Amino acid sequence: MGCLISTKGRYALRIMIDLAGNGQGSYVPLKEMAERQDISLKYLESIMPNLIKSGLVSASQGRGGGYALSRPAEEYSIGEILKAAEGDLIPVACLADGYVCPRADSCRTLPVWKKLDGIIGDYLDRVPLSELLTEEETI
Amino acid sequence: MGCLISTKGRYALRIMIDLAGNGQGSYVPLKEMAERQDISLKYLESIMPNLIKSGLVSASQGRGGGYALSRPAEEYSIGEILKAAEGDLIPVACLADGYVCPRADSCRTLPVWKKLDGIIGDYLDRVPLSELLTEEETI
DNA sequence: ACAATTACCTACCATTTTGATAGGTAGATT
DNA sequence: AATCTACCTATCAAAATGGTAGGTAATTGT
């Protein structure tokens, strides 16, 4: 389909919203969230490590364990969540990390891609996670 | 990789730039452009119908034939070119044409996707093809 | 101590998309 | 008539996507 944001990012966002609804105090088991959000537990298990690695959530094993936000919801941008979940968030392969295009210095379109990337990043970094919460979830 | 714009869109843009360099008068054979741009002729052949369908270029068969811009370069936006080449240009599957999400009315993220889509479209629609031409190509 | 609960890890897999190739057909020009 | 050109159909390898399965290790309540 050619999408910037896949289920990885979308599901991660829903998990973060779910976690925000629970507050920071206690841990929420992934199984609960999988059922609540109607997403495969096993698939979610493959996404969570990305959020852990980026320090967005903390986890605790064993009974009473689960996941929890590591900061208040207002202090997250959805940009950083999507970036963590997806690995990268680029509109065009030319901008891939580590990729050096042989046509780069004569390429007339590269500046446009960079600008586009900037615009997308700016917007997503400006939307706080808390903006996605309903009143009940915020309380 | 998770990209909004694939080679289809990027190659289409390079073809349009190449065509703009030739002016509107005569037709340019695809074979020439494939060699000049170092892109597989056969692959380009699969992209051109999209540009034809959207009325961005006109074609002529037979000797002396090829492709030509159907308007002056200033009157194209790169947004419409990319959209024609890619088929659609959406940042997230939720916005796919004809897709109706069951969670749509309670979804907290959908407004963000729509806004993002708007931002991307606005930018790309505002960049004219002529902005990608060098001085020589513009003459 | 032990059983239950939980995250975490590795491997696998079906489907779709991407990027491309191959060969042939039909129309236009010299 | 010969040639050049777009156009059409089929095929294909590799990668990404979205998901499944089974097991291991850490923690906790009882």
Quick structural overview:
The structure is a homodimer of 139-residue chains. With 139 residues, chain A is mainly alpha-helical. In chain A, 48% of the residues lie in helices and 6% in strands.
How would you explain this protein's 3D organization?
Two copies of one chain form a homodimer. The first copy, chain A, has helices at about 5-20, 30-35, 40-55, 80-85, 110-125, 135-139, and strands at about 55-60, 65-70. By secondary structure, chain A is mainly alpha-helical. Chain A has one domain (about 5-135): Orthogonal Bundle (Arc Repressor Mutant, subunit A), CATH 1.10.10. In chain A, strands 1-2 form a two-stranded antiparallel sheet. Chain A is elongated, with a radius of gyration of 17 Å. The first copy, chain A, binds a DNA duplex (30 and 30 nucleotides) through helix 3.
